[in-house]
Amino acid sequence: MNSEQPPAATGRAPGRRERAVDVLVVGAGPAGLALASRLAATGSVGVEVVDREDEPGGVPRHCFHSGFGLREAGRPMTGPAYALHWADAAVHAGATLRTGVTVTGWSDAAVPAAAPLRVDVTSPAGTERITARAVVLATGARERPRAARLVPGTRPGGVFTTGDLQRTVHVHRRPVGRRAVVVGAESVSYSAVRTLREAGVEVVAMVTELPYHQAAPVTALDARLRHGVPLLVGARVGELLGRGRLSGVALRHRDGRSTTVACDTVVFTGDWIPDHELARRGGVTLDRATRGPAVDGSFRTDRAGVFAVGSLLHAVEPAGTAAREGLLAAGPVLRHLTDGTGPAVRVPVEVDAPLLWIAPNRIDPADPCVATGGFTLRTESRLGPWSSLVVSRGGRVLHRQRLLRSAVPNRTVRLSAAWTANVGAGADGEPVRISVER
Amino acid sequence: MTVTVSGPLPDEVYDVAVVGAGVVGAAIARELARYPLRTALVEASGDVGDGTSKANTAILHTGFDAVPGSLEARLVREGRDRLAVYAEECGIPVEPIGALLVAWDDEQLATLPALARKAARNGYRRTRTVCADELRRREPHLGPGAVGALEVPDESVICPWTTTLAYATQAVRAGVDLHLNCRVDGVSEGSRRSPHRLSTGRGPLRTRWLVNAAGLYADEFDRLLGHTDFSVTPRRGQLMVFDKLARGLLTHILLPVPTALGKGVLVSPTVYGNVMLGPTAEDLDDKRATGSTAEGLAFLTEKGRRIMPDLLEEEVTAVYAGLRAATEHDDYMIRSHPGQRYVTVGGIRSTGLTASMAIAAYVVDLLSEAGAEPGTAADLVPVTMPNLGEAFPRPYERAELIAADPAYGAIVCHCERVTRGEIRDALAADIPPSSVEGLRRRTRALGGRCQGFYCGAAVRALFDAPSHGAPSYGAPAADSSSHGSEAAR
Fold first, then answer.
1. Is residue A255's pLDDT more than 60?
2. Interatomic CA distance for residues A274 and A163, integer angstroms
3. Beta-carbon separation of B486 and A238 below 8 A
4. Is residue A113 pLDDT above 70, yes or no?
5. Do A245 and B479 touch (CB under 8 A)?
6. Out of A104, A144, A154, whose CB is closest to B291?
7. Between chains, do B316 and A152 touch, taking CB under 8 Å as contact?
8. Which of A253, A287, A438, B455 has the largest CB neighbor count within 10 A?
9. Contact assignment for A175 to B476 by CB distance below 8 Å
10. A155 to chain B: closest CA residue
11. Phi, psi values for residue B272, rounded to 5°
């Protein structure tokens, strides 16, 4: 792999080594690697990417299906090929890429927001304290496991998330089970179905609480018609059954019925949560709705010099979106290295039900540009094709955008950034509100 | 050093057999190991501490609220002091953070002086009343409505998994035979000359003296020897564990003021850096009902929202249920039957972890009084356990350790920061885990917020690596957790 071991510790006393870099990127997924490749390509800054996993590439590494990289490389790639593509890009551009290196915390825990930025890391080579002029958090997201979803019952084996399943099947090549139920019917759920099928597991049902699936119609049709996977809508898993090994799941249907599906495997898919531990421990303010760091259009958090990109901001968008954000964040990071200041005023951007969240979710009136080119949102219920997103502040409508097609939960809704220059300062932290007009 | 997991049992007559390798049984075996005796520790499950002991509230009690004058009160008080010293010696994580009994109305507030007096009658005189303002200052995340508290400064949190494992490891190293996967289903009582003959799933086991530390099954075992002193009614306690990022929300164990209905729901830090909410208290018939329920979780959620609303904003990392061995009696049911060369240790409830070492000493005294003639006690070689506690340096933080062995710098489980070196050590330990769940209790691997999203496959692969000889679970019907592992964190 294109990873590089750090230089050996100097001096004889085994202790924490102190080092300094210009930019430290935490997380070698598509977002972190793309950012590193662009920053390093400028030739003017030292960039180091660290990742706690042994191989770079992030989640695509265990997504063995095709469909990655159309935008970047003009050809479809599998997840692992896509992961390699960005790792190569970063290393060829001159970034240092180190894997098996975990950032365990910020060195100045007592004053989390204090400058300079210093983190502690652990790797088989030892412990280090790295000082950086900018830290970019690209720590990604994970699916909520069974416990976090408060699914009651026994604690048998055979309970997975998609990430666990994909690593078990594709990376460790280990058997899974015979009959599986997939919880969820969004894009990642269909990836889980595919992985199960490749592992020789019969998928006996997919279950979603919503009245419809939330994936591309062709994917859902293919699973249902060609592979005979029944989709149970308006139902949720009420209980896990079995001792030692899962023996079934009890389903609660919307109409009050209960049924039991016999299976030895259940995969909880979707329901993403950003891996925000490092952000929180560093005193970075989170957005209440996304649970990722609150960032402005330049990927800046409220801690000067700390940026955030990728799935950490919007769990979860396709890998290509994360990589594009990495590329776009290079400009703001370089600017910070030059002028060194953080945003002075941040106007919150908030959403009204049925919208769930928006990213980015702060506007800096002095820097209203949105490097991402637009906003990403989620809704918790279907919005018809004639609905409009309405942007307002203090009762003043700034923008109105008609949805060209219907929007469903667990899928991307986009909002243009055309209105951000009109937000203006003042109004004492009065948030910008995004609402829906049906 | 003998640990067996399968095959016939040794054809020898043991001096003492302890049935049940929970925290109490393991403590008794450890105490017996100090004497020149042949002792067997016999366990139905594939691991030590696999029943009630693994799924409790993990508090090292002062015993301030015990029934004054009871055996439990005495053994909790003595056991607490012994275990505190022992934990220090072995590296069992203990944090003496203190407890606050929070009063939520004037009626509860009015009962605090009586609780302080009761504590004093139990020999605990360091309680102190805390006014609403001070309480708010010390626990700013408490929900609205708290009117005062009784402070119990010496209540502590402890690692229950390491405690049981330390006892058992020390016993085994001192010569006790540990027989796992060895369910006892019958006893032919010995006569004055001949030993007891236990029939087990792995064949017969002969022993002169017999100790029943069978926990939830202690009443059934007792009946095999003709006693009907008590029956065990499993009392289920469901608990929710919140992510480490919640740990900053509180600094004490937050106890409710006990009512006629029981001790109620507490919020407590754990030594692993999490926050625990629970338990429920449900009397059941089924001694295997260690599942959680929608009603139980809804109840805890509602209670938690009132005690500490901010806690409910945090991620839940685990939900589990344990069964306490409640009986119809108010006290421990420790009974010596000298004529039968038999001691029953029943009805050991949630305080059993705290009292374990005192129970063990008491049981050995009973055996002596009954004529067992154990001989002269010797000191045991101390054991040092791997640290699972967040308040003490973990291997990933220790530069000198990583320099000596880079495996301690290779973090496998990211949420809990468990290294390859720790997993390797646990798999090679004197009492190796019999399941991934057992590995989790020895290392914390897989116990964190992602529950295996990142490391599940890697940890299971390490567990199954042929080098450590554990049973493979390659067949689809087999699995990663042992029988009855539902209640493990």
1. yes
2. 14
3. no
4. no
5. yes
6. A154
7. no
8. B455
9. yes
10. B486
11. -85, 0
Residue range B425-484, pLDDT digits in tens: 999 999 999 999 999 999 999 999 999 999 999 999 999 987 554 443 333 333 333 333
**In this structure, are residues B209 and B342 in contact, taking their beta carbons and an 8 Å threshold?**
yes
Show the tokens assigned to B178. 């540990």
Burial B307-342 (b: 16+ CB within 10 A, else e): bbeebbebbbbbbbbbbbbbbeeebbbbbbbeebbb
Q: Tens digit of pLDDT for each residue in B128-171?
A: 999 999 999 999 999 999 999 999 999 999 999 999 999 999 99
Q: What is the pTM of this model?
A: 0.94
What is the rounded distance in angstroms from the CA atom of residue A121 to the CA atom of residue B414? 12
Contact criterion met (CB < 8 Å) for A148 and B316: yes
For residue B153, give both structure tokens.
């400064």
CA distance B446 to chain A (A): 11
**Tokens, residue B270:** 């754990």
Residues of B in contact with A102 (CB under 8 A): 396, 411, 414, 417
Quote the mean pLDDT of chain B. 93
B-chain residues near A161 (CB < 8 A): 450-453
Which residue in B426, B474, B436 sits closest to B456, CA to CA?
A: B436
Both tokens assigned to B109: 């507030």
Distance of residue B205 Cα from the nearest chain A Cα, in angstroms: 28
Nearest to B486 among A154, A158, A167 (CB): A154
Q: Beta partners for A392?
A: A397, A433
Number of helices and strands in chain A (H, E): 8, 25
Average pLDDT over residues B99-107: 96
Give burial (CB, 10 Å; 0-12/13-18/19+) of B7. Answer: exposed
The partner residue sitting opposite B457, judged by closest CB among A122, A171, A177, is: A171
How far apart (Å, rounded) are the C-alpha atoms in residues B356 and B113? 29
Task: State both tokens at B230.
Answer: 């008590």
H or E element, residue A71: helix A70-73
How far is A148 from B449, CA to CA, in rounded Å?
8
Task: Report the alpha-carbon distance of residue A336 to residue B53 in Å, rounded.
Answer: 54
A332 pLDDT more than 60: yes
Residue of B nearest to A163 (CA): B453
Candidates B479, B481, B482, partner chain A, best to mutate (most A CBs within 10 A): B479
Catalytic residue numbers of B? 61
Cβ B319–A147 below 8 Å, yes or no?
Answer: yes
Higher pLDDT among residues A10 and B423, named by residue: B423
With CA atoms as reference, report the closest residue to A160 among A140, A138, A184.
A184
Interface residue B460 vs chain A (CB under 8 A): yes
Task: Catalogue the long-range contacts made by A401-408 (C-beta closer than 8 Å, 24 or more residues apart).
Answer: A406/A382, A407/A379, A407/A382, A407/A383, A408/A210, A408/A212, A408/A214, A408/A379, A408/A382, A408/A383
pLDDT in tens, A52-78: 999 999 999 988 888 898 877 788 999
Asked if B159 and B59 touch (Cβ cutoff 8 Å), the reply is no
Kindly identify which residue of chain B lies nearest to residue A241, measuring between CA atoms.
B291
The amino acid present at B291, given as its one-letter code, is G
Q: How confident is the model at residue A368 (pLDDT cuts 50, 70, 90)?
A: confident
Q: Is B288 exposed, middle or buried (0-12, 13-18, 19+ CB in 10 A)?
A: middle
- Give this complex's ipTM: 0.93
The pLDDT, as a whole number, for residue B261 is: 62
Q: Is the pLDDT of residue A110 over 70?
A: no
Q: Say what angle helices B160-173 and B23-32 make with each other, to 10 degrees.
A: 30
Segment B362-391, tens digit of pLDDT: 999 999 999 999 999 999 999 999 999 999
Q: Which tokens belong to A278?
A: 């490092």
A155 with B488: Cβ contact below 8 A? yes
Task: Look up residue B164 and give its two tokens.
Answer: 């049981």
